[in-house]
Amino acid sequence: MGFTGFFLILFLIVHCTLNSMIFFDLYNPEDNGQTFNHWAHFFGTNFFIRAMEYGLFLGLLLHIIQGLILWAQNKKARPVNYSVNKYREGKWYSRSMGLLGTLILLFLILHLYHFWTPSRLGGTMGIPKLQEANLADYNNQPVHNLYAEMQNVFQNPIVVIIYILGVIALAWHLLHGFQSAFQTFGINHKKYTPLINGLGILYTIVICALFALMPVAFYFNWID
């Protein structure tokens, strides 16, 4: 569980960095998403990155299965709740990882439906093909205009709210999962644990704030 957690934590750094390229328009209004589309095309066509993408799906699947196994083991170890549990240990989100994980999974399915499916499968499942943008700085080859797709998807206020709620669930999940992954490998010491916890909080705030800001920025036309 800790190993797949580390893998997904690293993935979020890469994914957030790539998506943050949309903010290049704030510094160069004439960019019009070209920087983001350029790197999105690179990530979508590079052999090694595509191989890692399949590894990501496998890691995510293992993470879900392991979570279900741990949940079942905990239920089996204590099938009946305590009549009185006055001193419950840990934060509420550390006791609700299963619920938060389920909410994140539902959000992830929606996210894949909006962006990964049309980008990788070319408009299957009833999703129209993305508008193509001919980027002269990418070997004069047309690439999918994922930037325009994000603009389109995030014009729906309901979708924006769902994405923000999904990011909030991810934040609570990471607050416990980050330090828990280190603890799983025995990295738990009074000297280092506070530093790890602080790093986990900083990581969670930066990653989730950027992810939440993206749909908000498109909806309010802060970037166009």
Tell me what you see in this structure.
This protein is an all-alpha fold. The protein has helices spanning 2-19, 24-27, 34-45, 47-77, 97-121, 146-153, 157-184, 193-219, and strands at residues 132-134, 142-144. It has one domain (2-75, 90-219): 3 helical TM bundles of succinate and fumarate reductases. Strands 1-2 form a two-stranded antiparallel sheet. Helix 5 packs across helix 7 and helix 7 (157-184) runs antiparallel to helix 8 (193-219). The chain is globular and about 55 Å long. Mean pLDDT is 75; it is low at 123-139.
Relevant terms:
two-stranded antiparallel ribbon, 224 residues, mainly alpha, 3 helical TM bundles of succinate and fumarate reductases, 8 helices
Mean pLDDT across all residues, rounded? 75
CATH class: Mainly Alpha
Please report the distance between the alpha carbons of the first and last residues.
Answer: 40 Å
CATH architecture: Up-down Bundle
Q: How many strands?
A: 2
Please summarize the sheet with the most strands.
Answer: 2 strands, antiparallel
Number of helices: 8
Order of helices and strands: HHHHHEEHHH
| Rg over CA atoms | 20 Å
Walk across the major sheet and give the strand order: 1-2
Q: Which class of secondary structure composition applies to the elements?
A: mainly alpha
Shape summary: globular
Q: How many structural units, i.e. domains? A: 1
Catalogue the unreliable spans.
123-139
What percentage of the residues does DSSP assign to strands (E)? under 5%
